[in-house]
Amino acid sequence: MLKVLHISFHKGCQNDIEYIANKLNFELTFMEYDDGISIGLDKYNVTHEKASNSWNKYKDYYNSFDIIITSDTAPISRIFLQNNFKKKLIIWICNRFDYANQPSLNFPDQEYYDLINSVKDRPNVHIIGYTPFENYYANNIKKLSIGNEYIKPIGKIGKIYNNYVSTQIEDKKNTFIIGPYHNDNLMIDLKSKVLSLGIKVYNGRYDGPKDLSEFAGIIHIPYAWSNLALFEALQAETIFFIPSLKFLKYLIHTDINNEKKDSFFWSPPLIEDALYLSEWYCEDFKDIFIYFDSWSDLKYKINTLNFNNHKQLLRIKGNEHENNMLNKWKNILYNNIYNNMKDIYDFLEKQNDNLNIIECGGHLGNDTKKLSNIFKNGSIYCIEANIKLYDNLIKNINNNNVKIFNYCLSDKNGFSEFYIDANSEGDAGASSILESTPNYLKNYIKKEEKIIINSITLKDFLTRNNLDKIDLLWLDVEGFEYYILHSSIDILKNIKYIYTEVNFQEFRKNGKLYNDVKSLLLKNNFIELYKWEQGAKWGEWQGNVLFKNINY
Fold this sequence. Notes:
Elements: E1 3-8, H1 11-24, E2 27-32, H2 48-62, E3 67-70, H3 78-82, E4 88-93, H4 110-117, E5 125-129, H5 132-141, E6 176-178, H6 182-187, H7 190-196, E7 201-203, H8 208-212, E8 217-219, H9 228-235, E9 240-243, H10 245-253, E10 290-292, H11 295-304, H12 307-334, H13 344-348, E11 356-360, H14 366-374, E12 379-383, H15 387-396, E13 402-405, E14 408-410, E15 414-421, H16 438-445, E16 448-457, H17 458-464, E17 470-475, H18 481-487, E18 495-503, H19 514-522, E19 526-534, E20 542-549
Parallel strand pairs: 1-2, 1-3, 3-4, 4-5, 6-7, 6-8, 8-9, 9-10, 11-12, 11-17, 12-13, 14-16, 17-18
Antiparallel strand pairs: 15-16, 18-20, 19-20
């Protein structure tokens, strides 16, 4: 199981990564940042000396993990960037990558900016914003180059919030809450304004997302690009009433009836033209907030909203958001962990010896022999549809741990049409259930012959051979991979690894491409571990991909 260390200052980040670890089945350890020097809030200013101290103190411990994640705040990553950590490092930027407590001459310093900018040249390091604005800030404001990859918090409520204290007020379920934040209290007396509209309201602190969800909803004037607590509240189906972007800008620049007590606050920097990147006004969440264009519109929206229907919408959107973010985490956590593997055998030689392996597309038997020799105590089930190649396999492979079958692995049982590469100069390795496209036939295959052959689904093949699990499914079936997997989708949970050829061009009629296969497997708890080019640059022709079931 993958071993991951998470270092952060933020309880919400800790909760989010714990939830992700549970869903994606990796072993997670949480650690509070420690450099042996910092006192109080000075811990946020991670200088060269502090990063060196932390590395020297915990180097062996850090190196015992497969992956390290740093979150709020990003300067924690300096420990690993500065000391050339060789394993995978994920920097999850929350609250500006150069956040500092009372910035000084010591931090943030130029060396730190250079280290962050160097990430693009470090294949083992991934830097991701927790909202698109984090990337915008680094790329456009600070003129670095960190890319545009982001993963938003999921916000599911974890065990760290179990022991909350519910705010005790009368008729809580019909009362709206206004939090203790600057724009709600110091810029304007939002409580008095809402009470004047005849809306029941409580103004004060609350004890986490579970407590917040017990109110009718929250009325809020945003003050930051994003808040992790926002995602937790949405997953708890808390309804937010916030000014529309037009009304927010009006509040920023206009003193309505002399009600403003202080200036508008926004977590620096305030860039009005980029407010569409904030979570409050982004395209992703435009349907989940209740926007009001004026105070009278706020009253109208509260009086006319179907609260039950909107909570149902929040539930649907919350589930969609969770699935999307989990898929992003799958890819970034597991992809290219084995980035020093020159080919599949480099990976397989590190596995246990007694594996059950199904190889579909035995061809000339080269891979069959290699698999047999690597896994001497394992069982290799070699399937080859072409009768001539099958006969050669029977003659040439006498290994006791190999069984050879003349089937066509298919999406149905019975008989299937099968198109054999009949080019006299070829080796029939490009044969398939799928007929060649005219262009592929003309320029590559030259000639193909259609035959009828016995076919069997993957599910039934397992049943006939009394196999309840497969350690490795090896597919080389010329564009038919998706159909084989989809037709036996209910037994994919019993497969640990899938190594498959994939196509980026349609060589065969109705053939499925790389993204089709990847999408199917990601939806069924597989992640992409590694991919290899095949005779051309990745994405141009064909390739091979190793997928892993995250439940193993």
